[in-house]
Design a protein that fits this description.
By secondary structure, the protein is α/β, with parallel strands linked by helices. The protein folds into 2 domains: about 1-105 and about 270-280, Nucleotidyltransferase, domain 5 (2-Layer Sandwich), CATH 3.30.420; about 120-265, 2-Layer Sandwich (Nucleotidyltransferase, domain 5), CATH 3.30.420.40. Helix content is about 35%, strand content about 20%. The chain is built from 8 helices and 10 strands. It has a 5-stranded mixed β-sheet, with helices on both faces. A hairpin with a 3-residue loop joins strand 1 (about 1-5) and strand 2 (about 10-15). The longest helix has 21 residues, at about 200-220. The protein is globular, with a radius of gyration of 19 Å. The structure holds zinc ion. The site of zinc ion has 7 residues, from helix 4.
Length: about 280
């Protein structure tokens, strides 16, 4: 039996099952401090029976360098109490199993890639637009890491002159993509979430434009075939269509991938992250 954790800033999703597509039991616990959250999760797994491996898709930043003594750590997160947390080491010790570890978005990208691969897809990026903005990338079946994991939410979109009065809310960069288009950025700017604003409110077009610029950048820099847009903000009615249309407009018919470049919603819906975490476990057995 495989175990999986989708470790998020607000909740931990826990699951067990014989394979990534057969989750037999799942359970959600709120994310508090690590001293409370991690033992509670370990206790739940222990009560499910014996695991052969555990996969963790985690919020970050995390250390993914296998050669580092800090592999499997959540590193310099601003989330109170979680900096320098050895999350993979904790579960490896507590459950006595091998642990697969990656970012939550790389796990989601992996699961979406496997869902799309039978249709011939060989490259896929997953962008989550929610409390934060992050992205994962899978090429030829492998999650891509450079010297660390990508931080796709912290690129700088071009801004229309009339929208520059909003400084953005990223503590590091101000008006990076996350500082402009994440859920908290939208609330800081317009006083409501995107789905609470009327469909003809200019916020929809502005947010879609910023996210579309990220999609275009992924198409233009790595010629990725698909960009999957997940996360809470992405569930706003009409937003996915606006992003896809704006991305096509930005490409202006020039990119050699043409209409093979696609922006789409997650095929696995809410299950992309936890399914991908199961795949990280499966890879170890
Ligand atoms: Zn930033």
């Amino acid at each position: 039996m495989l175990g999986a954790i989708e470790a998020g800033g607000t909740k931990f999703v826990l699951a067990v099952g014989p394979s990534p597509h057969e989750i037999t039991v799942r359970h959600t616990i709120p994310t508090r401090d690590p001293e409370t959250t991690l033992p509670e999760a370990a206790q739940w797994f222990a009560a499910q029976g014996t695991l052969t491996a555990l996969g963790i898709g985690s919020f970050g930043p995390v250390e993914l360098d296998r050669a580092s003594p800090r592999w499997g750590f959540i590193t310099n997160t601003p989330k109170a109490g979680w900096a320098d947390c050895d999350i993979a080491g904790f579960f490896g010790k507590a459950l006595g199993v091998p642990v697969g570890f990656d970012t939550d978005v790389n796990a989601a990208a992996l699961a979406e890639y496997r869902a799309a691969a039978p249709k011939g897809c060989r490259s896929l990026a997953y962008l989550t637009i929610g409390t934060g903005i992050g992205g994962g990338l899978v090429l030829d079946g492998q999650p891509v890491h450079g010297i660390a994991h990508p931080e796709m939410g912290h690129i700088f979109p071009r801004r229309a002159a009339e929208t520059r009065e909003f400084a953005g809310i990223c503590p590091h960069h101000g008006d990076c993509l996350e500082g402009l288009a994440s859920g908290p950025a939208i609330i800081a700017r317009w006083g409501a979430s995107l789905s609470e604003l009327a469909p003809d409110h200019p916020a929809h077009g502005i947010v879609a434009d910023y996210v579309a610029q990220a999609c275009h950048t992924l198409f233009a820099t790595i010629a990725v075939e698909r960009v999957v847009i997940g996360g809470g903000v992405a569930k706003t009615a009409g937003l996915a269509e606006r992003i896809a249309a704006r991305t096509a407009q930005l490409g202006a018919g020039y990119l050699p991938g043409g209409t093979r470049h696609r922006v789409q919603s997650p095929a696995l819906g809410e299950n992309a992250g936890i399914t991908g975490a199961m795949m990280l476990a499966e890879a170890l057995v």
